[in-house]
Amino acid sequence: MKHRTALAVAATVALCAGGVLTAAPPASATGGHDGDDGYDVVIPLSERASKQLRDGQNRIAAIGKADAWTHDGQVVLSFPVAGGDHRRGGDGDRAMALRGGVAYTGAGPNITWERLKVKDNGVITAKLRDGSRAAILRVSGKRHHDRGGDHGDYALVLTSVGAASLNNAAKGAPFSAGDVFAGGDDCR
């Protein structure tokens, strides 16, 4: 257990530069939970993503063991760490599995992101409603671009699959690949 806790924290900290993700002892707004390793991964969404995910008919909700709450108008998601070092195939990629997921509803078909995995290369994958696994988010370093222009800091940005899956549910396709989903403190 000690090894898995250390790996989970190390993997999260490697992705956390600039506060994109944080590994925190469990203490959520809904009473707290904790992963197998005793830590949660907390993702504070950007103001724009929070607004788009709750605009009009659009809704976002935590499912399973995940939690969601709003802080200063921004959606915060929290996922218990499911375990430490998981190897996939022979490629040696390590991933930290998270419990719970996210449901997104809107004008179109509902979508879910479940069985999230934070990979060492800064990519977050999820099992989508159709059963496929895809990269939905990635850590973007020092500079990134969104519809508001260029910004500094680190952020979690949508991949093309992540944006397309959100746009399946949302009216007007408000998301594009590279849009800031979380982090990027000066992107508010």
Supply the key terms.
globular, 188 residues, 16% helix, two-stranded antiparallel ribbon, alpha+beta, disordered N terminus
Short summary:
The chain is of the alpha+beta class and 188 residues long. It contains 3 helices and 14 strands.
Describe this structure in words.
With 188 residues, this protein is of the alpha+beta class. 16% of the residues lie in helices and 42% in strands. The chain contains 3 helices and 14 strands. The strands form 2 sheets. Strands 1, 2, 3, 4, 5, 6, 7, 8, 9, 10, 13 and 14 form a 12-stranded antiparallel beta sheet that branches. A two-stranded antiparallel sheet has the order 11-12. β7 (101-105) and β8 (111-119) form a beta hairpin. The longest helix has 14 residues, at 2-15. The radius of gyration is 15 Å and the shape is globular. Mean pLDDT is 75; it is low at 1-19, 25-31, 33-37 and 87-91.
